[in-house]
Amino acid sequence: MKSFARIFAVVRRYRGRFILSQVAMFVAALATVGYSTLITPLVNEGMVAGNAGEALRIGFWMLLLAVIMGISMSIAASQAVFFSQGAGYVVRRYLYAKIQKYSFENYDHMPTGKLMVRLNADVVNIQNAMQYAIMLGSYAPFMLLATVILAIARTPDLLWVLLIVVVAVLGLMAILIPAIDKAYKKRQARLDALNNTLQENLTGISVVKAFTREQYEIEKFSGDAESIRKPAYAAAWRVAFLSPLLTGVGQLSIILATWAGGNQVLSGAGITVGQVSTFNSYMSLIIAPLALMSIVLPLVLRGDVSAERIFEALDAEPTVLDKD
After folding, report:
1. Torsion of Cα atoms, 318 then 320 then 322 then 324, to 10°
2. pLDDT tens, 161-207?
3. Which residue, 137, 152, 227, 250, is the most exposed by fewest CB within 10 angstroms?
4. Which residue range(s) make up the domain with 60?
5. Is residue 308 situated within a structural domain?
6. What is the spatial distance between Cα 271 and Cα 290, in angstroms, rounded to a whole number?
């Protein structure tokens, strides 16, 4: 992720929007955790005790926290969009200016097709990755940490369910993420070859027609397209499995927690219905970041591959320098 992190250094002019988005997401995370924490008193002191006044009072605070959460996330989303689009503008401008300084040897090493992919597809990949990464920058880690701490403090008897979820998720990530990253790198590299073939064919289309080489060019292009399909498919099916697997692990954990907590409530082990409901809400808070991560991680991996390719072009030095 070093190349992706370098992008943030390049776009320093937009750091104010980045900071504002992270503050807003942190406030949203606090409001979300506070909302879930109020479930226990709402059930035990309001609903079970039959105290309508207490239930209304707690419900008012939950409504207020929900409004704060919604406003904060809206602010964070808007700032993330501004930051990501600004980052794309800056990177594209810097890269184009760098290309103007290339010598002929640089163009031999990095022909037009490769440069076109970097200026277009790779920049778009970075924009998408940055937008979603910023929105999860402080939200997901804080939510996971806060949820674990609250689960330990309030429902230690069900902590083993949380540990099972963490181990299962880390195992899935360790298996799928490296394979997805490798497939994205192959896909982008072969996209360069496809663009080179397309550019050469369109530039010399009159020569191709003059020597009736249309069928050869069609077969050549088909071969390049097929070489892209294989790594693209390899990445896509892993990404397709990632989201339902993570969500399934989270949903199974809620079922397991409800079963284990319900048995403890019935046996009088000291745990209350409100605590079981609260623990399930904590598990839901874990599922939400996991579901988002299943969407964001492939985008970030793709963005990191694109950032590495862009910095390859930015770091290239012309072999022939202009005299001042």
Report:
1. 100
2. 878 887 887 788 788 878 877 887 788 777 777 777 777 777 777 77
3. 152
4. 2-315
5. yes
6. 27
Query: Residue 141 phi/psi, 5° resolution?
Result: -60, -40
- The answer to whether position 321 is within a domain reads no
pLDDT of residue 269: 66
Q: Which two tokens stand for residue 277?
A: 């409901």
Question: Hey, what are 63's tokens?
Answer: 């409504």
pLDDT at 71: 93
pTM: 0.69
Output the six-digit token pair for 143. Answer: 């939510």
Within the chain, residue ranges assigned H as helices are 2-10, 15-37, 39-41, 52-99, 104-109, 112-117, 123-136, 139-154, 159-203, 205-210, 214-267, 273-315
Q: Classify residue 324: in a domain, yes or no.
A: no
Residue-by-residue DSSP string for 1-37: -HHHHHHHHHTGGGHHHHHHHHHHHHHHHHHHHHHHH
Please, what is the average pLDDT of the chain?
79
The answer to the question of residue 8 being in a domain is yes
Q: Give me the sign of the Cα torsion angle 284, 290, 293, 295.
A: negative
One-character DSSP codes across 86-116 = HHHHHHHHHHHHHHTT--HHHHHHS-HHHHH
CATH at residue 310: 1.20.1560.10
Residues 295-298: contacts with CB within 8 Å, 24+ apart? 295/132, 295/243, 296/132, 296/133, 296/136, 297/173, 297/177, 297/180, 297/242, 298/180, 298/184, 298/235, 298/239, 298/242
